[in-house]
Amino acid sequence: MNFYSFTGGCFFLLGLITAGFSSAKTPLTTDGSNKRDPVFIAGGATLVYGVDENRDLIRLRQLDLDTLESKPYYESANRHHVEVAFSRDGRYISYTECTGNLTAQFVIKDLQEKKDFFVKHSGRGGTRSPAFAPDNSVVVYAFAEKGPQQLWSVDMEAKNKKQLTQCEGISNWPSFTPDGKTIVFSNTRENNYEIYSMDANGSNEKRLTENTIMDIRPVASPNGKQIAFTSLRNGFYNVYVMNLDGANVRQVTDSEERDDYPTWHPDGRRLAIVSERKGKFDLYMVDVPTSGKVTTKR
Question: For the chain, which has fewer Cβ within 10 Å, the N-terminal or C-terminal residue?
Fold first, then answer.
C-alpha cells in the first residue's frame, strides 16, 4: 500500500516488519510533526530531514545531534523540498523541488561552486530518491519516462543521462555501496516491492528478498556489508537489516504502529528512523543488532 499526500499543488509519496528482537530507541525529536527522509551529514554530527511545516510547505530541517536543536536547512523556503540526498564529501545536495501545480524539478546543487543544475526528462513523471556515487561521478535516481519507473543516472552537471534498469515493475530507492560498485534498490515486478542488487552500470542483477508483502527503502551500510530496509513482513512497518547478499535478516524494531525511513549513522552501528506513535512522527536513534531473531523469509 502506498500513501500519498496532496500538498500545495504537488503529490508526494509519503511511504510505503516478526515479533522478537527489538533495539532500544533514543528519541531525537519530540514535536510530533510529520517527518521523512532523514540523512546524516557532517560526519554524523547533523541529521537533515524533511518535515511538514504546514499544509503548504514541506521543508528541510537540520538537527544538531549534540544539542538536539533543530533549525531550517534553508533560512527561507517557499517551495517543497523532498527526498534530499548529499554527496559523501558534502559538496553536493540534491532533492525534488515543487515548481507548481503537479509539477516538480530535480535539482543538483554544487555547494562549493554555488551552482544549480536541473535534470530534464520528457513525460510528466516525477524524479525520486536520488543517490550519489561515492566518487561523485553520477547521481542515480528513479523516473518514469516511458513505461514503468526505472533507475537513471546523470553526472554532477545533470548531463550524460543514462537508463540503468530496463525491467518490469516500478524501481525505486537506489543506494550505493561505499566502494561504488553495487547499487541496491526495490522493484515491484513480483507484484510487491522486493529488494535487488546490481552492478553500478545496471548489469548482474540479483534478487535479495522473497516475500508476499513489500520490502522497501534499502540503504547500504557504511562498510558495504549490510542493508537496512523497511518491511511489512509481520503486518506492520518495521525496520530490518540483512547482509549484502540478502542473508541473515534481523529485526531492528518491533512495533504495531510504524517505524520507517532508516538511514545509517556513519559509525555503522546505529540507524536513525522515523517512528509514528499515536499519530505523531518523530526521529529516533536505534542500535543495529549483531545477532537476534532471523526471519524465516528473506
Answer: N
